[in-house]
Specification:
- The complex is a heterodimer of chains A (159) and B (333).
- Chain A is an all-alpha fold.
- Chain A is extended and about 65 Å long.
- The longest helix of chain B is centred in the middle third of the chain and has 20 residues.
- The two termini of chain B are 20 Å apart.
- In chain B, the strands form 3 sheets. A 7-stranded mixed sheet of chain B has the order 1-2-10-15-14-11-12, sandwiched between helices.
- Classes of the chains: A mainly alpha (159), B alpha/beta (333).
- The interface between A and B is large, with 43 and 35 residues.
- Chain B: InterPro entries: SpoVAD (IPR010894), SpoVAD_sf (IPR038369), Thiolase-like (IPR016039).
- Chain B: GO terms for molecular function: acyltransferase activity.
- Chain B: This is Stage V sporulation protein AD.
- Chain B: It holds the Pfam family SpoVAD.
């Protein structure tokens, strides 16, 4: 727990939080990291195999084979989410299924399925990007900032 | 009648003449499946939303309890019901179907015992001849409102709990056969600054301890008076903390009588992490499991301390800590 949180708490609260912390099971960080590495690696390997397949058999080259590869992974992730399997894999794999492109597809699909009962506009449309939205917002914004820095450095006669 | 600071003693001893518990598929595979009156294999219950499914669960539990009491809907004078959803819609919508005079209550997961305590109060004070106390929760509806979409692949920490899909209801009356409600202790809101909604057990444990201590202080009885003292839904984490906290406060509750509804309802093999939670956790375990054991004569005196976390999805996003409450009700044969 961060120090700031302790500062806001009263002495009794602080005392209790330390008391409770001692009795809570810890997240198994090391084994979670290993599982995430394994599953994340497997997904990336599948992606690599798909890319090579698209180059080898479908006349794509290295610059554009990424598109059908990503699309294939997304379709698989969406199907697994729809069949109710993805969340079970994720509970075991943790960041391994969250970080790659499959995790992103899962956030959009799961939110869409969940809010289907509120209709297509207010439900699916309004909530589809509930979890994925912040990633897009800050992803685009940070890309913009990085691009700006690159241009400035270039203009100043840098690399 | 008021006893001590925050407790009631029901001198007329209102009787739980009938009770019912309804559960979903996960509960059907659980450790107490035989104690449910109705079990569903589909979490949707044939409805088109989880919220409607929860309402159905609640309606069925109420109807079943009324049937078991040998009464008709029209015979019930008051309905007290609560659940976890925004504006307690499952309760109010079920009350629309049942068409009874209705008081909606909200005490999060403590609603079950809040309802039973208030129903007993109404009967003891002669403001009602009978009343129906009910509570419900639905796993997917609660996840949807408080956490993430059900199919979202987020890894839950080992302190997380599994919301029970189910509903429990009890018909309390002036006279009849059955276990009697003898005492109740109304809890204070306790906030120890825990703000993680995936660690409700640790957040609620101090509230449970506060109410348990108040109960024994107000009535001046020893914990060994009861055959079972069961907290509502502390789970493995909260149960351990509450037990240690009671010892630290100098209160001795024998280990074999101190338990938690959230630890009883599922089996070890089920992937519930720290145990069960939700209004239906204490409601189904009390109205299903404990009532059956009391009728069989295995238990004579029980104390149910239903715990509730009074947070909203908005409050935790705004980084507020989780205020918690616990209400205790004593039931004796």
């Amino acid at each position: 727990m961060s120090r700031q949180k302790y500062k806001k708490a009263t002495p009794t609260q602080q005392q209790y939080q330390i008391f409770a912390k001692d009795r809570e099971p810890k997240r198994p960080v090391v084994s979670n990291c290993l599982k995430a590495f394994l599953v994340g690696g497997i997904i990336c390997t599948i992606g690599q195999a798909l890319q090579m397949m698209y180059i080898e058999y479908f006349n794509f080259d290295e610059t554009n084979a990424g598109n059908p590869t990503v699309a294939t992974l997304i379709i698989f992730s969406v199907l697994l989410t729809g069949f109710g399997v993805y969340d079970h894999i994720a509970q075991w794999a943790g960041a391994g299924t969250a970080v790659p492109i499959t995790g992103f597809a899962n956030t959009v699909t799961s939110a869409s399925i969940e809010h289907r009962s509120e209709g297509y506009v207010l439900g699916v449309g309004g909530n589809m990007f509930k979890i994925a939205g912040p990633v897009i917002v800050y992803g685009v914004f940070s890309a913009f900032v990085v691009a700006l820095i690159k241009i400035i450095i270039k203009e100043l006669g840098g690399i | 009648m008021l006893k001590g600071h925050q407790s009631w003693v029901f001198e007329s001893k209102p009787v739980i003449i009938a009770s019912a518990a309804v559960g979903g598929p996960f509960e059907g595979n659980g450790a107490l499946s035989e104690d449910f009156d109705i079990l569903h294999s589909d979490i949707w219950l044939g409805q088109d939303s989880f919220e409607k499914a929860e309402r159905k669960l609640l309606e069925e539990a109420c109807q079943k309890a009324i049937d078991k009491a040998g009464m008709k809907k029209e015979d019930i004078q008051f309905l007290l019901s609560g659940d976890l959803m925004n504006q307690i819609t499952p309760s109010s919508f079920a009350a629309r179907t049942l068409g009874m005079p209705y008081l909606g209550i909200f005490g999060a997961c403590s609603s079950s015992m809040e309802g039973l305590a208030l129903a007993s109060l109404m009967i003891d004070s002669k403001f009602a001849k009978n009343a129906l106390a009910a509570a419900s929760s639905h796993n997917a509806a609660a996840e949807k409102q408080f956490r993430y979409p059900t199919e979202y692949g987020a890894q839950k920490p080992p302190t997380a709990q599994w919301t029970v899909t189910g509903a429990g209801a009890a018909v309390v009356a002036e006279e009849g056969d059955g276990p009697k409600v003898t005492r109740a202790t109304i809890g204070r809101v306790v906030d120890m600054g825990i703000s993680d909604p995936f660690n409700m057990g640790a957040a609620m444990a101090p509230a449970a301890v506060d109410t348990i201590e108040a109960h024994f202080r107000d009535f001046n009885i020893d914990p060994s008076y009861y055959d079972i003292i069961a907290t509502g839904d502390l789970g493995a984490v909260g149960h351990r903390i509450a037990g240690d906290l009671l010892i630290e406060h100098g209160m001795k509750i024998p280990k074999k009588i101190f338990t938690d509804c959230g630890l009883l309802i599922y089996t070890e093999e089920q992937p519930t992490l720290a145990g069960a939670s939700g209004c239906a956790c204490s409601a189904t375990v009390t109205y299903g499991h404990f009532m059956r054991r009391m009728k069989k004569g295995e238990l004579k005196k029980i104390l149910i301390v239903a715990t509730g976390a009074l947070l909203s999805p908005m409050s935790y996003q705004q980084k507020e800590s989780i205020p918690c409450i616990a209400h205790a009700v004593a039931i004796e044969m």
